[in-house]
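Regression test case RT-17, inverse folding.

Input:
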């Protein structure tokens, strides 16, 4: 697993479809090396090793669906710099943690040794999250603060999931917990990207003659990305896409297909409401009840309906709104899936910790779903996100 699944810039002379690398570390944001090799683990990407991975061929992304001359404002650039500084403790911690996590997934590090690595890294992740939460409000669009804090919270929860995976009680479920950790990390990545897209109009853009940009989709499809749950939590998923799904430009004059269509904001909102997604309070009750079958059905419903919604048009000139809602829906679905995994574990500390992770993931989802679309708050207290323990 990689922390940052951000915009992929590859030389047309060396096309590497499978890797979602990060941008260079030149104050352009939260990025971690995304080497082409096996996935690494837990941590957000503050450390951009793109220069190493691409021979120093770092390049910035440019706008959304077509070429643009817009650039980030001075206020946005200043805020991003402060955010980078706030995330620094996490960036420092992952220099040690990422290789350990990679080896743990490959079975090269004993669970007890990896648990020690989690215990060392987690306080640094929390320190970074707390620093991000203390950033002054970005007045042009305060949602940026929300997205960055939510992403930081998900990186913390990713570490906690790995901590459970390293527990002896989780031996039989370890493979599924590793995949769950990657899903939560991916949600953190894509939520972080929502903040970057607000701050930097050049975050997405057209490819040049020498460099092709291959950003991931704003909202992941777990099956296509090879991150779907499997036995004993769900039936064996279908095969992943031959190459990682990439973001399609918004349809318009001169934009080739495949591209994302648009519809009126009212039509899109109606589509979301008619989809009949489970309500967050219902998920919260299921998380407390810990009935595996119920939680598994909820998780599958969120995944299936989100996939269907994402296949439909975006609200006109409000693509980011659809992306944020999609990530909120997948967050609620992931809360159900994590609680399902907790229900499968034997009673004890590992189960309790994983159930608490599910609660926190649901609280983050509350930030991303809109009341005007008919979604209610989960009812769980935000103070859960202040926990500093494993």
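Golden output:
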């Amino acid at each position: 697993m990689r922390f940052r699944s951000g915009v992929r810039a590859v030389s047309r002379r060396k096309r590497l479809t499978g890797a979602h690398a990060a941008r260079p570390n030149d104050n352009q944001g939260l990025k971690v090396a995304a080497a082409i090799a096996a996935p690494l683990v837990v941590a957000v990407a503050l450390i951009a090793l793109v220069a190493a991975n691409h021979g120093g061929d770092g390049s910035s992304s440019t706008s959304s669906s077509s070429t643009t001359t817009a650039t980030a404002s001075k206020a946005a650039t200043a805020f991003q710099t402060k955010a980078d500084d706030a995330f620094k403790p996490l960036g420092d911690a992952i220099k040690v943690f990422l290789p350990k996590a990679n080896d743990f997934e490959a079975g090269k590090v004993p669970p007890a040794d990896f648990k020690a690595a989690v215990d060392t890294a987690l306080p640094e992740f929390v320190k970074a999250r707390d620093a991000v939460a203390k950033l002054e409000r970005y007045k042009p669009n305060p949602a940026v603060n929300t997205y960055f804090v939510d992403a930081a919270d998900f990186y913390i929860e990713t570490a906690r999931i790995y901590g459970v995976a390293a527990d002896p009680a989780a031996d039989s479920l370890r493979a599924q917990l590793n995949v769950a950790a990657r899903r939560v990390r991916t949600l953190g990545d894509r939520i972080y990207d929502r903040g970057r897209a607000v701050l930097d109009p050049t975050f997405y853009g057209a490819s040049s003659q020498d460099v092709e940009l291959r950003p991931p989709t704003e909202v992941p499809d777990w099956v296509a990305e090879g991150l779907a749950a499997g036995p004993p939590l769900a039936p064996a998923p279908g095969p992943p896409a031959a190459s990682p799904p990439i973001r399609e430009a918004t349809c318009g004059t001169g934009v080739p297909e495949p591209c994302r269509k648009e519809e009126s904001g009212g039509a899109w909102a109606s589509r979301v409401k008619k989809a009949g997604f489970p309500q967050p309070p219902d998920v919260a009750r299921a998380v407390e009840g810990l009935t595996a079958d119920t939680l598994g059905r909820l998780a599958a419903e969120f995944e299936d309906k989100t996939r269907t919604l994402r296949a439909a048009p975006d609200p006109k000139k409000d693509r980011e709104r659809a992306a944020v809602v999609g990530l909120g829906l997948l967050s609620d679905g992931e809360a159900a899936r994590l609680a399902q995994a907790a229900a499968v574990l034997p009673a004890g500390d590992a189960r309790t910790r994983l159930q608490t992770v599910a609660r926190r993931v649901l609280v983050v989802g509350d930030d991303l779903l809109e009341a005007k679309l008919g979604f209610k708050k989960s009812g769980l207290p935000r103070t859960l996100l202040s926990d500093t323990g494993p």
